[in-house]
Design a protein that fits this description.
This protein has about 180 residues and is an alpha+beta fold. The chain has seven helices and three strands. Strands 1-3-2 form a three-stranded antiparallel β-sheet, covered by helices on one side. Helix 1 runs antiparallel to helix 2 (about 30-50) and helix 2 (about 30-50) runs parallel beside helix 4. The longest helix is centred in the N-terminal third of the chain and has 23 residues, at about 5-25.
Length: about 180
């Protein structure tokens, strides 16, 4: 179990990255599960590879398989990417392990627990991210926040204007908010 300190350090670093840096700045709860799921999946597969007798070429080829996920796809949500990646990682871990060792069982449990916690509605269930089109052209940030707060009945965390159409009197905005 010499991998435990490295696994603990990775989880601590990811906690700082995701909960200390990313989420407070960008407020996208859907990406929390994706970041943690992909990190733990890669960590688990790399740990199994490091503790097996397979060649480096096979290891690199397996990571090539993991790269088939398109992170910019509109057809699959960020939460679904995390589950998709976790399912690939689980298949690779079990497929490369000749027996169910405590390391393999622990890594599989780690993937499942991290996704269960990161995708829990108890943690980020009230945080939302949505694109909204308003029926008036709004360029003032304060007016925009007030209009969105009234329409959504929520606390607005951040906004980003995507498009203002003065001819048709429309505003397209990406809004991050916390539902009441």
């Amino acid at each position: 179990m010499t991998a435990l300190p490295v696994i603990a350090a990775d989880l601590a670093a990811m906690a700082v990255l995701v909960f200390g840096l990313y989420f407070p700045r960008h407020r996208r709860a859907d990406l929390v599960a994706a970041f943690l799921g992909i990190n733990v999946g890669v960590l688990a597969v790399a740990t199994v590879l490091a503790n097996s007798t397979v060649s480096a070429g096979l290891g690199l080829g397996l990571f090539g398989v993991l790269s088939i996920i398109r992170l910019r796809s509109d057809e699959i949500t960020q939460h679904e990417i995390a589950y998709y990646f976790a399912s690939l990682a689980l298949g690779l871990i079990f497929g490369m392990s000749p027996s169910l060792t405590p390391l393999v069982a622990g890594l599989v449990a780690l993937i499942l627990v991290v996704l269960a916690v990161a995708d829990s509605h108890m943690i980020f269930g009230r945080f939302r991210s949505q694109q909204i089109q308003l029926d008036r052209a709004v360029t003032d940030p304060s007016d925009l926040r007030d209009a969105l707060a009234d329409r959504l009945g929520a606390r607005i965390l951040s906004t980003r204007i995507l498009k203002v159409d003065f001819v048709n009197d429309l505003t397209l905005v990406d809004v991050r908010f916390r539902a009441r």
